[in-house]
C-alpha cells in the first residue's frame, strides 16, 4: 500500500502546453515519408502532408513542433528550400545516412504543416555554418509584414501574409555537431547572432540559446552568465540510453534488469533539470528564462536491417514508462521548464508514430501523450507519493512516479506510472481542497516488451481503467505492475 497526498490548495505553477511539444528533423523517414509525401503521392495527403498522420497527431493537441533539426539545423541553408520545387537545390544529407535531400520540404511547407496541426512553429536557426545575414533574412522572410527583400520573396512564392513565429533557436548542440564550440565562444556568438533575430510588428520572437549536453553544468553557467539577458530560453538535451553510446541496446529484446536500468537512467532527468535550474536561479531568480528540454527520449540501437543513419527504432511498453516519467518530471518543474520536445515525432528515435508505405501504427508513447494531454495549461498541484524501491541491486528505482494538475474547467488530473515489473500497488489518496465526486481513468499496460507492429497494430493500446473508488478522503486505486494510468476527477 502507498499513501498519496494531493494538496489542491497549493497551485504551484502553470504547466505550459509547450511541455507537450515534438521535434521533426530532416533525418531518416521523419519528414519525408513519415509526414510529407508530396502532392502527387498515392498516399492521401493535403498539400503533401499525410492525412492519416495529421489526423492522429491532431488528437494529441500538439502544442509546438521544432524543425529542421537537430544536427541538420546547423547545416541547413533555408534558401535552398524555398521557391519552385524543381529549382530547389539537391544535396546530400551528410549527417544522416548520406541520402539525397531534395529540399522539397522547406520553410513554407513547415509552416503549412504547423497550420494543419494547429501548433506553434519552432524554427532552429543555423549558427554553426550559417551567416548572421542568413539568419536575419530567414526571420524576415517568415515574419515581416511590409515591403522588404525577404517579404517580397515570400510573396513571390505565393505567401502574401507573414507567418506567426514565436520560437526561434540560435544554433543546436553547438558544443558538438553544431561547431564543437567552447561555452565562452558560443555565448559571444549567441549575443551577436540574436541581435539580428528581429521581432517585427506584433510578432514577438522568443529567442532560445543552445544549452548543455545533459550534465554539463559549466556550459549552462557560462552561457547564462554571459548571455542570459539576451535570451528567453535555453535548451537542454538528455537522452536515455540503456547501454552506452557504442552499444545502446535493442528496443525490443531486453532483460528485466535492462528494464530497471532504463528507468533508472530516465530518472536522471530529475537531477539534470534540478541542477540546471539551480544554476539559472543564480542569474535569473525571477525565472524569466525558460529551460527548454528540446530533445529528450530513449535512444536504442536501430532496428536490424535499417539504415544506421536513420535512427529508426521500435517502441515498447518500456518506452511508454520512459515518456510518462519524463512528462511527470517536466510537469513538476514547470516553473522553470516551459517547453519540451520529444525526439522525434515520426519514424525516428522515440516516435509516437511509425509508418511503412501507406500504413501507420501508433506507438505506446503516443498513448502516453494522449493520456497526459489533460495537463496542458493546467496548474500543477503539490503532491507526494510514498514509494518502495524495486529492481535489482545496481538498478533500483522507486515503484511509483506521479504528477497532478487542476485544469481551468475545475477537473483534477492525476498521472501515475508503476515501474515495478511484478507488483501492483494499492494507492490510498488523500486530497485536500478538492472533493472528488466521480472520475474516469485510462490505462496502458501489457508485457514489458509489448509493442505495435504493422501486422499487430493494437497489441498495446489504451483501455479504460476503473479499478478505483472515490472515498471520504479522496480516492483509492490499485495500479497494476508495468503500467501508466491517468485519472480525471470531477467534484
Ligand atoms: O535527435 C537526433 C540528434 O540528436 C539531433 O540531431 C541532435 O541534436 C542530437 O544529438
Number of strands: 26
Helix content: 10-25%
As a whole number of angstroms, the C-alpha radius of gyration is 22 Å
- Please summarize the sheet with the most strands: 10 strands, mixed
Report how far the terminal alpha carbons are from each other: 25 Å
Overview of the structural elements:
The protein is of the alpha/beta class and 491 residues long. Helix content is 24%, strand content 28%. It is built from ten helices and 26 strands. The longest helix has 16 residues. The chain is globular, with a radius of gyration of 22 Å. The mean pLDDT is 97.
Q: Mind sketching the topology for me?
A:
Elements: E1 2-14, E2 21-23, E3 45-46, E4 49-50, H1 51-59, E5 64-67, E6 91-93, E7 99-101, H2 107-117, E8 120-125, H3 132-143, H4 149-156, E9 167-170, H5 183-195, E10 206-209, H6 217-227, E11 233-240, H7 256-266, H8 268-283, E12 290-298, H9 317-332, E13 337-343, E14 353-356, E15 359-362, H10 364-372, E16 379-385, E17 389-391, E18 396-398, E19 400-406, E20 412-418, E21 425-432, E22 438-445, E23 463-464, E24 468-470, E25 474-479, E26 483-490
Helix pairs in contact: 3-4, 5-6, 6-8, 7-9, 9-10
The structure holds alpha-L-arabinofuranose.
Amino acid at each position: 500500500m502507498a499513501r498519496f497526498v494531493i494538496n489542491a490548495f497549493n497551485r504551484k505553477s502553470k504547466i505550459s502546453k509547450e511541455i507537450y511539444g515534438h521535434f521533426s528533423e530532416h533525418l531518416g523517414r521523419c519528414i519525408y515519408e513519415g509526414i510529407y509525401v508530396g502532392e502527387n503521392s498515392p498516399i492521401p495527403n493535403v498539400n503533401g502532408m499525410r492525412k492519416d498522420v495529421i489526423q492522429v497527431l491532431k488528437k494529441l493537441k500538439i502544442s509546438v513542433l521544432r524543425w529542421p533539426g537537430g544536427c541538420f539545423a546547423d547545416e541547413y541553408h533555408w534558401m535552398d528550400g524555398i521557391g519552385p520545387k524543381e529549382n530547389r537545390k539537391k544535396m546530400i544529407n551528410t549527417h544522416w545516412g548520406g541520402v539525397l535531400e531534395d529540399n522539397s520540404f522547406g520553410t513554407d511547407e513547415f509552416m503549412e504543416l504547423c497550420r494543419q496541426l494547429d501548433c506553434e512553429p519552432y524554427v532552429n536557426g543555423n549558427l554553426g555554418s550559417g551567416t548572421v545575414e542568413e539568419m536575419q533574412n530567414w526571420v524576415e522572410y517568415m515574419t515581416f509584414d511590409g515591403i522588404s527583400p525577404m517579404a517580397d520573396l515570400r510573396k513571390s512564392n505565393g505567401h502574401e501574409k507573414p507567418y506567426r513565429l514565436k520560437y526561434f533557436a540560435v544554433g543546436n548542440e553547438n558544443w558538438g555537431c553544431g561547431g564543437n564550440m567552447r561555452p565562452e565562444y558560443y555565448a559571444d556568438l549567441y549575443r551577436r547572432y540574436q541581435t539580428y533575430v528581429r521581432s517585427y510588428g506584433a510578432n514577438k520572437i522568443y529567442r532560445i540559446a543552445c544549452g548543455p549536453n545533459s550534465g554539463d553544468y559549466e556550459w549552462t553557467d557560462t552561457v547564462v552568465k554571459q548571455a542570459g539577458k539576451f535570451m528567453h530560453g535555453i535548451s537542454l538535451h538528455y537522452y536515455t540510453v540503456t547501454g552506452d553510446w557504442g552499444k545502446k541496446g535493442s528496443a525490443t529484446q531486453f532483460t528485466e534488469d535492462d528494464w530497471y536500468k532504463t528507468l533508472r537512467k530516465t530518472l536522471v532527468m530529475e537531477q539534470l533539470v534540478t541542477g540546471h535550474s539551480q544554476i539559472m536561479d543564480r542569474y535569473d531568480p525571477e525565472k524569466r528564462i525558460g529551460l527548454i528540454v528540446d530533445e529528450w527520449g530513449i535512444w536504442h540501437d536501430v532496428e536490424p536491417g535499417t539504415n544506421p543513419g536513420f535512427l529508426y527504432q521500435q517502441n515498447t511498453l518500456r518506452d511508454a514508462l520512459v515518456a510518462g516519467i519524463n512528462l511527470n518530471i517536466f510537469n513538476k518543474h514547470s516553473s522553470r521548464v516551459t517547453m519540451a520536445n520529444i525526439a522525434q515525432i515520426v519514424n525516428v528515435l522515440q516516435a509516437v508514430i511509425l509508418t511503412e508505405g501507406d500504413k501507420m501504427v501508433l506507438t505506446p508513447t503516443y498513448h502516453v501523450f494522449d493520456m497526459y494531454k489533460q495537463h496542458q495549461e493546467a496548474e500543477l498541484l503539490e503532491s507526494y507519493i510514498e514509494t518502495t524501491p524495486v529492481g535489482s541491486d545496481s538498478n533500483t528505482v522507486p515503484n511509483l512516479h506521479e504528477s497532478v494538475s487542476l485544469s481551468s474547467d475545475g477537473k483534477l488530473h492525476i498521472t501515475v506510472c508503476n515501474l515495478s515489473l511484478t507488483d501492483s500497488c494499492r494507492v490510498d489518496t488523500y486530497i485536500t481542497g478538492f472533493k472528488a465526486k466521480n472520475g474516469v481513468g485510462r490505462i496502458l499496460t501489457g508485457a514489458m516488451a509489448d509493442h505495435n507492429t504493422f501486422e499487430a497494430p493494437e497489441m498495446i493500446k489504451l483501455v479504460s481503467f476503473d479499478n478505483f473508488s472515490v472515498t471520504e478522503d479522496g480516492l483509492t486505486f490499485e495500479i497494476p505492475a508495468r503500467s501508466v494510468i491517468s485519472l480525471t476527477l470531477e467534484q
